[in-house]
Amino acid sequence: MSPASHHLHAATRHAAWWAIIVASAEADASSIMQPASTRQQRRSASVEFDSTGTAAFWIAVLWALALAAIFFRYRGADVGKLPQTIVGLLAGFTGGFTALQIAAACGQSLAGALLAGLIVLSWFGVGELLQRVLKLSNASSGDAAIYVSTAPGTNKIADVAWSCAWGAGATALVWFGLGWMWLYKWPVAAGLLLIGVALGLVAVRRLRSDALPWQPNAKGALSRVTSALVLIPLLLAGVAALAPPTAKDTLLYHISLPKMFLGAGGIVDAPGNIAQYYPLGAEMNGLWAMLAGRIISPRVGEAAFGAVEFAYLPLLMAALYGLAGKYGASDGAAKIAAALTACVPTVYASASSGYNDVALALYLLVQKAQVKPAWVLLGLIAIGLLLAALGVV
């Protein structure tokens, strides 16, 4: 396991434990407050919410200050050069390019992001279809089998995350098989994308009819602050993921091997490449995005690859949010768990560089969520997807 993977897994575990701790505090407060009248009950509930929310907020503030202190302790020289670095970055971005060239480059990146969004929609459609076909959920009994983290269900965000995770695993296996049949052709990519988007739209329509809320009890300053702590690093990592790849491992095999496969029309041997026998589970979906994007231009395909690899990060945040809800965490506490993970520098570096560590963490979380004995098979499937993303043979 790489150091980046180790740090990412540790961050995910710590965030989950913080959510459990906060949830335990809420449960203790609830057991202490047992009002005798409706008025007292409302007042107690308000006091409980305010005290728990305030405690959770200050825990997050202290955690952020501790991380900032550690960062400035070792990166003080870099921070001092930040103004010059920003000026140089802006000058380098605009220098030597016309407004038309900049607009064209941004347009291609946006096209790649849009294509990646359609692929994520396909993941959702495929995952939701698998659950219905295999009868993995039973809404009539109130038991969401594949959504163990939210059983019997608390919000739609977690439901979408689990469906996308299973759909991404299924489509990766499909593209692995297509590689052995030498079907890495743009008509195949376009046709499967149309089918996936159609399934996704059907799944979205079914989701909209679901009575579950998107975010339960999402109100108050704590919910807004923690939402920002999650969204800001997601936005920054998403923009960086659209840029041309520069990370060492990405250039070595994460994107170079899929490019080689596309050039050959199927999976081929790559003599001398250290990763030639890796399963490349997460990269198979990136290969799909890159092949479809090349219909427009190679740059759009490259941007789509980075955006698809980044897409595992918001899914991880949503899954962690749902898993925290399973342990009884409030909306604010569950978002703190996601924010603590999203703000880890290693998480940003992995998601923005085309690495597969975030996908690895997502399937690790999915596997951990399958706690019911009847769903051991689902846990084993998740382990298989986990190993495929990790690159273990």
Helix and strand topology:
Layout: H1 3-32, H2 38-80, H3 82-94, H4 99-133, H5 156-180, H6 186-208, H7 220-241, H8 248-254, H9 256-264, H10 281-293, H11 298-326, H12 331-342, H13 345-352, H14 357-369, H15 376-390
Helix pairs in contact: 1-2, 1-11, 1-12, 1-14, 2-12, 4-5, 4-6, 4-10, 4-11, 5-10, 5-11, 6-10, 7-11, 7-12, 7-13, 10-11, 11-12, 11-13, 11-14, 14-15
Notable traits:
393 residues; globular; mainly alpha; 15 helices
Beta strands, count: 0
- Unreliable spans are 12-49, 138-153
Number of domains: 1
Helix tally equals: 15
Helix and strand element order: HHHHHHHHHHHHHHH
Helix/strand/pairing category: mainly alpha
Mean residue pLDDT: 77
**Main β sheet profile:** none
Description of the molecule:
- The relative contact order is 0.15.
- This protein has helices spanning 3-32, 38-80, 82-94, 99-133, 156-180, 186-208, 220-241, 248-254, 256-264, 281-293, 298-326, 331-342, 345-352, 357-369, 376-390.
- The chain is mostly helical and 393 residues long.
- It has one domain (3-60, 111-390).
- Helix 4 (99-133) crosses helix 11, helix 7 runs antiparallel to helix 11 and helix 14 (357-369) packs antiparallel against helix 15 (376-390).
- Helices cover 76% and strands 0% of the residues.
